[in-house]
Amino acid sequence: MATIKLMHAKLHRVRVTEANRHYVGSVTIDSNLLAQVGILPLEEVEIVNIDNGNRWSTYVLPGEAGSGKICPNGGGALLCKEGDTLIIWANEQCDRAEILSSGHQARVLIADENNCCQEVFYQTLTPTLTPNGETLEYNGYQTTNGKQLTSKSQVMVGAEA
Fold first, then answer.
1. Residue of 57, 59, 101, 102 marked active site
2. Angstrom distance (rounded) from CA 70 to CA 30
3. Residue 26: is its pLDDT beyond 90?
4. Is 138 a catalytic residue?
5. pLDDT band at 120 (very low <50, low <70, confident <90, very high)
């Protein structure tokens, strides 16, 4: 069984509200934001600071619901400052064959300047059978009501893929 890591949740353009280097480690995130994309407390996440390019991985601690808190702790606090814009995402191990047969869906939250949810949408992989063989359709923007704002692209899937 071949496993791959695929993104399952992303917090896009959240702002650092504080950075606490005198903490054991992790990133504290408003628990409402976590619930909206399905990231669990203690789950490993990847973080990129789009203001300075720093990247790191850590685990999540839930912050006060509705606070908008995004607080890198420990070493991560040295890689950003209050007001920096981050992208935070979580991956999951998936069986490649299952993805090719059943598809995959990742939930993405775009935050406003106060770390409130501006929008939630899905990025999906959907398997289809075409006259040319098996493909995966990628849709980069699909809301819960089915609204699609980007065109789909197809990726050919070979027998050995």
1. 59
2. 7
3. yes
4. no
5. very high
* 18 touches 86 (CB < 8 A): no
Short-list 38, 21, 161, CA closest to 80 = 21
What are the beta bridge partners of residue 136?
A: 127, 155
Give CA–CA dist 18/33, Å, rounded: 16
The amino acid that residue 22 corresponds to is: H
> Mind listing the pLDDT tens digit for each residue in 27-36?
999 999 999 9
Long-range contacts at 2-6 (CB < 8 A, ≥ 24 apart): 2/95, 2/96, 2/97, 3/93, 3/94, 3/95, 3/96, 4/93, 4/94, 4/96, 4/99, 5/91, 5/92, 5/93, 5/94, 6/91, 6/92, 6/94, 6/99, 6/104, 6/106
DSSP annotation string for the chain: --EEEEEEEEEEEEE----BSSSSSEEEEEHHHHHHHTPPTT-EEEEEETTT--EEEEEEEEE-TTS--EEEEGGGGGG--TT-EEEEEEEEEEEHHHHHHH-EEEEEEEE-TTS-EEEEEEEEEEEEEETTEEEEEEEEEE-TT--B-S--EEEE--TT-
